[in-house]
Specification:
Elements lengths: L1 H17 L10 H4 L12 H21 L3 E2 L4 H8 L7 E5 L2 E8 L6 H21 L3 E7 L21 E3 H7 L6 H19 L2
Parallel strand pairs: 3-4, 4-5
Antiparallel strand pairs: 1-2, 2-3
Helix pairs in contact: 1-3, 1-7
Length: 199
């Protein structure tokens, strides 16, 4: 099943990044480009783009390949309740549990962004808990294997219990993805990017 996920990522990656053309701890760039990263390549905007590719890929994989039910959230209803419009990155229901995730490729957030992200996740989880019996979720990191591996995260996220790594996420789907599997996959993406862009 992880092979299927990987092929989805490569397809979306090619369409969204290849077709369109200083150290930070917690960045996916350091996994994807272990050597080039130290030279400042590719640009920081790559983190945003690869984060978008992985978010699209997760949703496609969960809903289209695994046929897991998507939970529909009324945008007007949630805006009315929490006071502003929000984008919900990943949400689905499996085994009677609604899972919601704010997807992140970089957890190296400044103090203010960390606070805003915490508040957003907390408000969305509260909203969902009023409507569903069993709700879990938080922040899905595409950089770290498990919540225990996450480093350099500022409060209030650090102690929130909201952090999930990619292995934590795939375990929910009963798919085993080891740290080595993921790191090898990230390097495959880096090689693909370099080959396709002549970087």
């Amino acid at each position: 099943m992880f092979k299927t996920f990987k092929s989805i990522v490569f397809q979306i990656f090619e369409n969204d990044i290849i077709g369109s053309s200083a150290k930070e701890s917690g960045s996916l760039r350091e996994l994807i480009f272990p050597n080039e990263y130290k030279k400042g390549l590719p640009p920081q905007s790559f983190n945003i783009k690869i984060g978008n590719v992985l978010e699209k890929s997760v949703n496609c994989f969960v809903h289209d390949c695994l046929s897991i039910s998507k939970v529909e959230v009324d945008k007007n209803d949630i805006k009315k309740e929490i006071g502003y419009s929000v984008q919900i990155d990943t949400i689905f229901e499996i085994n009677g549990i609604v899972y919601y995730f704010e997807d992140k490729s970089n957890l190296n957030l400044d103090t203010e962004k960390s606070k805003v992200t915490f508040e957003k996740v907390n408000k969305i989880l509260s909203y969902l808990r009023k409507r569903y019996k069993n709700v879990k979720g938080g922040i899905l990191s595409f950089r770290f294997s498990t919540s225990f591996d996450v480093f350099s995260v500022k409060e209030p996220l650090k102690s929130s219990g909201f952090l999930y790594g990619y292995s934590d996420f795939f375990n929910i789907l009963n798919i085993n993805v080891s740290k080595k599997d993921w790191e090898d996959f990230m390097m495959e993406i880096g090689e693909f990017y370099i080959n396709e862009t002549n970087c």
